[in-house]
Write the structure tokens for this entry.
Amino acid sequence: MSNLKIAVVGATGMVGRTFLKVLEERPFENATYTLFSSARSAGSVLKFMGGEYTVQELTETSFDEGFDIALFSAGGSTSEKFAPIAASKGCVVVDNSSQWRMDPNVPLVVPEVNPEDILNHKGIIANPNCSTIQAMVALSPLQKKYGIKRVVYSTYQAVSGAGRAGYEDLENGMKGEAPKKFPHPIAGNVIPHIDVFLDNGYTKEEEKMIKETRKILHDDAMRVTATTVRVPVFNGHSESINVELGSAYDLKELCEVLKNAEGIKIVDNGANNEYPMPIIATGTDYTYVGRIRRDDSVENGLNLWVVADNIRKGAATNAVQIAETLIGYWNSGKLAR
Ligand code: 3JN
């Protein structure tokens, strides 16, 4: 394939810098890169691919020079304005914000789960919310084998999910300083509030998990509920997932299904104190699954504990995997570039 031109939008942010790290680890063939940010961070120099890159200010003409793929992580309003501009110039945007996720014209993709949805893209492909991504990696193999009737999520989300300011609130809070990002101290605390509250008493983060799950698993009727909670962990989201499967299952066989699924590592030996934890997941691209056990309070019930690095698999790595899958479709002729 001829030279690929890649734009990274929001390159100086937490996810943006992780985009760069992941791209260094798994580079595209024959690619050149341009890094963009808002005017505020433009001019910063970032070390990348063994060289130094000056970050350019993102403007309405940035995409005129012809990019193939743009990885966006610059917030919803930047995506709202600039993703359609990029797409109109023939660039495929992989967008990490929630701006386009529920748009029926935008595929919402976890490459281990629904890669073929990329085939229907119209210039924008959305990266799901971090909490949704790791849940999908764990639930999709179970849906394929047994069906899923109902899901109850309870999350334990790291402060890095709220960006650098969230990270600093925990760091500074441990020294006794007042929070700037969160509405309460996060050090020594647990806050059942992520994103804004909606009229129905849910938070937007909870609504994202519910709606994105149904879209990615292609089941509008799936019953899903969620409680999303911020905990004083620097990085790595944990989730308790209670599932009502659609058919009877053998627990040993179900563990094999999960073990053989793409992207999953099973850590499940309570007698040896082995279970998924943020300190195991952080810095990796796996979704860790453990505490796998029957929920006898309902028919075909199951409990799982699922942990992943929210900035890598929950954001940057998943977006890069989407781009890799897209390039694969171009190279095989399944999609016209
Ligand atoms: O708080 C977390 O752990 C995840 C936060 C994700 C987030 C933060 C600000 C804006 C999102 C997201 O990915 O849904 C957005 C957004 O794009 O709406």
